Amino acid sequence: MSRRRHSDENDGGQPHKRRRTSEPIEIEDRLESLICRVGEKSTSSLESNLEGLAGVLEADLPNYKNKILRILCAVARLLPEKLTVYTTLVGLLNARNYNFGGEFVEAMIRQLKETLKNNLYNEAVYLVRFLSDLVNCHVIAAPSMVAMFENFISVTQEEDVPQVRSDWFVYVVLSCLPWVGKELYEKKDVEMDRLLSQIEGYLKRRVKTHVPMLQVWTAEKPHPQEEYLDCLWAQIQKLKKDRWQERHILRPYIAFDSVLCEALQHNLPPFTPPGHMPDAQYPMPRVIFRMFDYTDAPEGPVMPGSHSVERFVIEENLHCIIKTHWKERKTCAAQLLSYPGKNKIPLNYHIVEVIFGELFQLPSPPHIDVMYTTLLIELCKLQPGSLPQVLAQATEMLYMRLDTMNTTCIDRLINWFSHHLSNFQFRWSWDDWSDCLTVDLEKPKPKFVKEVLEKSMRLSYHQRIVDIVPPTFSALIPAEPLFIYKYEDESASSLPGYAVTVTVGNAIKNRASNEEILTILKEVPNPNQEDDDDEGESFNPLKIEVFLQTLLHLAAKSFSHSFSALGKFHEILKTLTDSDEGKLHILKVVYEVWRNHPQMIAVLVDKMIRTQVVDCAAVANWLFSQDMAHEFTRLFIWEILHSTIRKMNKHVQKIQKELEEAKDKLEKQQHKRRDSGDDEEMDKNSEDEEGQLEEQIERLQEKVESAQSEQKNLFLVIFQRFIMLLTEHLVRCETGSVDISTPWYKNCIERLQQIFLMHHVTIQQYMGTLENLLFTAELDHHILAVYQQFCALQL
């Protein structure tokens, strides 16, 4: 539901904004606006607003019933943070118009079936929670809600279904209990006890191999990183022990109890969970992110414990607010800070923890990374007296725990922190982190500071970074991003190929044709060729070096100069790199000249993949080559690799989409021909068109197969290289009786996890091949464990 639309239309703006002016449409828009805005800041109390709105809607029911039903069903799904406000409204309408209440319940069940069919599982959670809260408003009878929950839990008895399916149905039931547990226990305690014991049995037999792959920290102290169902189960157990008393959910319906208890209730129609379909995409398991407890928020209200249900409710509502408003950072920040009940909790700590929890969520955050940066900046602006201090405290904690933090999460922390600093003049108390200067520079802390400064330089310039960091940090300051041209001056004249670089440089300046430049390059001696070898056809690394060093040197002024140089001499580059060795060597030369400017390397490699000068497998082989071993743990290496994989995946998807479109077109054409009857002329034209389409489909089919084979090969190259590197390390440690857990090993094994997690959808297609060729039973158990954790994510 768009809330902005109403403010845009009602602000006295230009008349052209409102195209539809007929009265019924205006009334429908007014109804939508009234329903969407109830529960927001107002001079009147929420109760009187609800009573007034119920009166307005009741009066409009005869004419606008379908519209009202549609809006209420939509807000139940899309505005879960105002759940109890809307259940109260439905309760009041049901008390005044029993038939409308029945129709609403039926519409909600239809919508629930639809969302499950369309794999919209997060929205389905909100719909079930809404239905359960209607029990509190005397709209739905408690026994029928219990019956629905029993049907949900029966899924745990199904055979040959993925664990994530059963997990979801268990999660739905447990996550409704903070709202409705008390009411259901009062009415159906025996059935509820049976239900909870079934859930307990299921949780005990669940497989949790996947958990290490999803944890932000490997250490269990100071806060255990619990699996989401285990944590929620502990919270519900405590709630039950406290006799279902929770103190945090806003319950407007209590004020209307005398009206609501008189209302007739509806029974939910029997609801059977839809069966498992092979293409169903259930939500992945999660680990609950914890970084604060009551000791971290010394002043003001106490933070609820990690197993108190209040913690679940607060976090759930904050996640819902972000989900609803994430595209509008100002609205989102304002909504988070005006959270109901904010005076009873240390709200800033909860907000910061929830935002970092989403940012570090594995395999990927719910929204794009940069959204969290802009949201935190906005929050700092709105609460300058308190939120920046909490954020600084959180950053300090994250820094202190870097040694056990997941490498993927460290990447996101680097990107967030450098971007955040760039918005606050790069001010930071760097001296507080001087402990990182006394340890091995490969350890996580110095590595983190170095990468943050590297990223900050991309958002600023080299001298600025030198000025903001204390001189003691000089070892961690990135090198000045200058071009390294080995044929720069006279002293290089003894180097092979020097004379040709001068000629090539002049030819490029004088706008010589590609043929002329290729003729000049023929003069370059080939170090790989024997004197008596007349063919001269073997791969010549010096030719690539002479041409590319000279070309990039002349274009070193900016990104756009370099791009246009690659574009202009694309034909020559393609000629020089027609072999696999040539492709590897061109990447090697790009690294040699720009090794002090990782961002330039990344964009040039990206450009060369797009223009097909190099292919994705060549980039992977280069990154894992011995030449790059000293850079292996640098962040830019992995940014290039992930970008390369994404390009390959997009290429495959694009061709697959073209193929699907061509097939649809052919199908429509055949339908059209069947419907046209006996028209011979039309028949002949249709047959010609169909023939062309069939040829096109055949060509596209071949392209898809070739692209998929290239994609599979890319993953095989990457995993094979990982296995070789890790196996060498493990054997070396074993023979030397050394501990395997070095900083390099932690980084490498977690990068392997990262590849699996970030590209899990694509990799799943090739599981059979990976299992047969690479991840076999003979593989070292340290490496195999990563593959087994990945498999467990979708079991």
TrEMBL record:
| Keyword terms, alphabetized | Coiled coil, Cytoplasm, mRNA capping, mRNA processing, mRNA splicing, mRNA transport, Nonsense-mediated mRNA decay, Nucleus, RNA-mediated gene silencing, Translation regulation, Transport
Q: Does the keyword Cell membrane apply?
A: no
Could you give a GO molecular-function term held by this entry? RNA cap binding
Residue intervals of the MIF4G domain: 28-240
Pfam families recorded for this chain? MIF4G (PF02854), MIF4G_like (PF09088), MIF4G_like_2 (PF09090)
Q: Does the keyword Cytoplasm apply?
A: yes
Q: Where is this region: Disordered?
A: 1-24, 664-702
Q: Which InterPro entries match?
A: ARM-type_fold, CBP80, MIF4G-like_typ-1, MIF4G-like_typ-2, MIF4G-like_typ-3
Q: Which GO terms describe its cellular component?
A: cytoplasm; nuclear cap binding complex; nucleus
- SUPFAM superfamilies per record: ARM repeat
Q: Name one GO biological process term.
A: regulation of mRNA processing
Spell out the Acidic residues composition-biased ranges: 677-695
In which compartments does the protein localize?
A: Cytoplasm; Nucleus
- UniProt family annotation: Belongs to the NCBP1 family.
Task: Provide the protein name.
Answer: MIF4G domain-containing protein
**Taxon lineage:** Eukaryota, Metazoa, Chordata, Craniata, Vertebrata
